[in-house]
Each structure stands twice: as C-alpha cells, then as structure tokens.
C-alpha cells in the first residue's frame, strides 16, 4: 500500500503540473522574458491541439518568469505598434522570492523531512514555513491592490487560494501575469521584442494559421483581407542581429 506521505507529495506534484498547463486559442500567443534582456514568443500552433485549443506546459523551473497572453487578428494585422515592455518584465518580481521559497520547501525540504529525518517536529516546522510563505504572498497581493497594481477581485481570490493551497504560491507570478489584460497585438509585439532568428520561426507559425484560414474559408476562397494580411506578414522582416 502506498503511504500517506507518498500520496500527499504525488498530489502536490500533479497539481503543480496542472497549474503549469495553459490552453490558448489559435488567435492567441504567449510572450515571456528569457534571460536578462531577451524575450520569447509562443504562437498557439506550437502547442498540442486539445479540445479546440492548444495546450502548453510552462517551464516548471522558472516560476519567477511572467507569462503574458496576447491576441492577434488574421484579417487586421497591427504590425506598426511599438510599446515599452520593461515595466511588464519586472512588474511581479517582488513575488519571485516567496514563489521559489515555497517551491523549495514543498518539493525539496518537505520530502527530505518526511523520508529521511522522519521527525514530526521537523515536518511541523516545514509546514509552518510553507504556510508562512502563503500568508506573506496573500499580504503582498492585498497591498498591491491598495497600490493599484492588481484588481481587487483578482488579489482577493488569489490570496485565498494561496492560503488554502500553497501550491498556488509557487505559481503566483505566472497566475498574476496571465490574468493581466494586455491591449497589445501579438504579432507587433513579437516583431518588436524577438531577435531575427526567433522572429523568422514565429512568423512561419503565424503564416501557417493564415494559410489554413485561406484554405478553409467557406465564404470566399480569395478573401482579400486574408491575402493582404499574408503578404503584409510575409514582408515583415528584421535586420540580422536585432
């Protein structure tokens, strides 16, 4: 029979994997920082198609990294928009410490206490530290609301989830960033932020979507908007080294 400790840790791992999965529609894309200055973009077509959407598994080791969801329109490409993303890169940085602390406590120190130390006192101390991180996160969320950084309904909901389910604390940066409404176009943002090689790969995926829409169009096989968008996107280049 599987022990209660193994069942508990298995449930924690499975729930964290569930928390790290995201479904996006074909007209959406994900933007997230990579390293100290670069960005990465994931069009929906690079995921696994599941239940009408594309399934992505986020990197389970980069809990400090915000993930932003953006829209794009195949018939109305907005390729000339530019914006400053430096603030969005660091907006939720203050939550990174408790996120990593919770991850280490839950997935490293707690298993070690359960299977190696086998001391009730040590386990209680670790559990107390885990919930301390959750409470600290909840307080940070409520303070951010008062500062106008996070909407009150979102902060209250996440604060309760962190207290009742510490795994949410591990994923708090990504939870917050994914609920952030970004009124920016995915294509324009990708073209602005990506390097030349990354933009070429991203553009190929986007052209695949437009080509599919052209082929499957039931109204007009020669949809002028789609054809114009395709030509416009095809001609959107970046200088090598950008």
Poorly predicted sequence stretches spanning 5 or more consecutive residues:
none
> How would the global form be characterised?
elongated
Report the mean per-residue pLDDT as an integer: 85
How many discrete structural domains? 1
How large a portion of the residues is in β-strands, by DSSP E? 5-15%
Rg of Cα set? 21 Å
Which structural class matches the secondary elements? mainly alpha
The total beta strand count reads 6
Can you walk through the features of this model?
The protein is mainly alpha-helical and 242 residues long. It has 10 helices and 6 strands; from the N terminus they run H-E-E-E-E-E-E-H-H-H-H-H-H-H-H-H. It has one domain. Strand 2 and strand 3 form a beta hairpin. Helix 9 runs antiparallel to helix 10. The longest helix has 27 residues. 27% of the residues are buried.
Key features of this structure:
mainly alpha; 10 helices; three-stranded antiparallel sheet; 242 residues
Quick overview:
The protein is mostly helical and 242 residues long. The protein has ten helices and six strands.
Lay out the secondary structure.
Layout: H1 4-19, E1 21-24, E2 28-34, E3 38-43, E4 48-50, E5 53-57, E6 68-71, H2 86-90, H3 96-117, H4 120-146, H5 152-164, H6 167-170, H7 172-179, H8 186-193, H9 196-216, H10 224-234
Antiparallel strand pairs: 1-5, 2-3, 2-6, 4-5
Helix pairs in contact: 1-3, 3-4, 4-5, 9-10
């Amino acid at each position: 029979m599987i022990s209660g400790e193994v069942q508990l840790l298995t449930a924690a791992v499975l729930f964290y994997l569930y928390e790290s999965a995201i479904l996006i529609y074909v007209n959406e894309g994900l933007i997230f920082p990579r390293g100290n200055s670069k960005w990465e973009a994931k069009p929906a077509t690079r995921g696994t198609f599941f239940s009408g959407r594309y399934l992505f598994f986020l990197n389970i080791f980069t809990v400090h990294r915000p993930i932003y969801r953006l829209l794009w329109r195949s018939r109305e490409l907005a390729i000339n928009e530019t914006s400053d993303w430096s603030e969005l890169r660091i907006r939720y940085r203050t939550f990174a410490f408790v996120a990593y602390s919770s991850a280490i406590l839950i997935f490293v120190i707690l298993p070690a206490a359960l299977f190696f130390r086998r001391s009730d006192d040590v386990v209680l101390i670790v559990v107390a530290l885990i919930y301390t991180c959750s409470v600290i996160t909840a307080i940070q969320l409520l303070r951010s609301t008062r500062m106008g950084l996070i909407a009150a309904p979102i902060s209250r909901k996440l604060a309760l989830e962190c207290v009742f389910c510490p795994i949410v604390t591990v994923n708090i940066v990504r939870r917050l960033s994914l609920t952030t409404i970004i009124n920016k176009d995915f294509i324009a943002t990708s073209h602005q932020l990506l390097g030349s090689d990354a933009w070429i790969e991203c553009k190929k995926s986007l052209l695949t979507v437009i080509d599919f829409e052209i082929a499957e169009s039931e109204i007009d096989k020669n949809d002028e908007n789609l054809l114009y968008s395709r030509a416009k996107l095809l001609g959107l280049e970046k200088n090598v080294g950008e």
